[in-house]
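Researcher: Re-running this chain for the archive, since the previous output was lost when a drive failed. Same request as before.
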Amino acid sequence: MGLFKYFLAISIGFLILSSTANAQCKRFTEKQCLPKLAPFTNNGQINNATLFEGDSASLMMTFYSLLDYRLMVCSHEVLGAGVHFKVRDNDGNVLFNSQEAQKNYWDFRVNSTQDLMVSIIAPENPENLTDIPASGCVSIILGFRE
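Model: Regenerated structure tokens:
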């Protein structure tokens, strides 16, 4: 029974830390990222995650026809300026690479409703002299205008 209580206490601790990190990430996104979306209107959905340097994450997103979109990725400074994203179609073709474009957003329009894969990459920081990789909030924000 003591082992069960130990695992239960650890599980509760992880849940509390996770919800605190999500709240901090949401606050960061609302203060630092959403204002930069203008003149586009946020679709009300905020996708964020805490990434370590060297990590990547992907998200499938649906885009509807005849709307102008701004897809933006915003990240904590601790991850450095190298955080970038790629957008791929269902065939795996890269439609946009923010690293090549040297900007953290993409303005575009789709002719027909489609799902696109958005991948975020937080590269390793060669200037990090510790064995502990930096971590920070990364947000994918979608805005539209008709």
